[in-house]
């Protein structure tokens, strides 16, 4: 999570961008596997960009599938990586989830600090 510039939920399952929850990678992934999957994800995202630039719909669809595979491998999509039975709020508006109160406090704290226009990692 080092360098992450968005608030992270107290349970470490999500980060928040523009009021929406996004699932974090599985923290139990071995570092070597995570690095490989992140590289695959970045390569796939570049392939999406290239396919769009050349208007190659087949290549774009294939690249999107590779993005999805990498995100599933990282635990950011597909079955949740936690085992306590808690539901998945990935891509939900934080205000409509159990994290709403926490996020409200996080936003209030950020707005009272100098340079508050930048989101920071939650404590």
Structural class: mainly alpha
Helical region count? 3
Helix-residue proportion: 40-55%
**DSSP, total strands:** 2
The major pleated sheet works out as: 2 strands, antiparallel
CA-to-CA gap between the ends? 12 Å
Overall shape: globular
Average pLDDT confidence is 89
Share in β-strands: 5-15%
Rg on CA atoms, Å: 17 Å
Total individual domains: 2
Low-pLDDT residue intervals, each spanning 5 or more residues: 114-123
Kindly report the spatial arrangement of strands forming the biggest sheet.
1-2
Task: Report on the architecture of this protein.
With 123 residues, the protein is mainly alpha-helical. It folds into 2 domains: 1-24 and 83-114, no CATH class; 27-75, no CATH class. It is 43% helix and 7% strand. The chain is built from 3 helices and 2 strands. The protein has a two-stranded antiparallel sheet. Strand 1 (14-17) and strand 2 form a beta hairpin. Helix 1 runs antiparallel to helix 2. The longest helix has 23 residues, at 31-53. The protein is globular and about 45 Å long. The relative contact order is 0.21.
What's the structural blueprint in terms of helices and strands?
Elements: E1 14-17, E2 20-23, H1 31-53, H2 57-74, H3 100-111
Antiparallel strand pairs: 1-2
Helix pairs in contact: 1-2
């Amino acid at each position: 999570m080092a360098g992450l510039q968005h608030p992270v939920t107290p349970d470490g399952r999500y980060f928040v961008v523009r009021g929406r929850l996004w699932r974090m990678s599985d923290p139990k992934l071995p570092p070597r596997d995570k690095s490989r999957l992140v590289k695959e994800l970045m390569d796939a995202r570049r392939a999406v960009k290239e396919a769009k630039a050349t208007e190659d719909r087949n290549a774009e669809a294939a690249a999107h599938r590779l993005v999805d595979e990498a995100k599933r491998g990282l635990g950011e999509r597909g079955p949740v990586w936690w085992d306590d039975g808690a539901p998945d709020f990935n891509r939900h508006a934080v205000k409509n989830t159990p994290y709403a109160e926490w996020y409200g406090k996080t936003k209030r704290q950020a707005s009272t600090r100098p340079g508050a226009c930048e989101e920071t990692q939650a404590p």
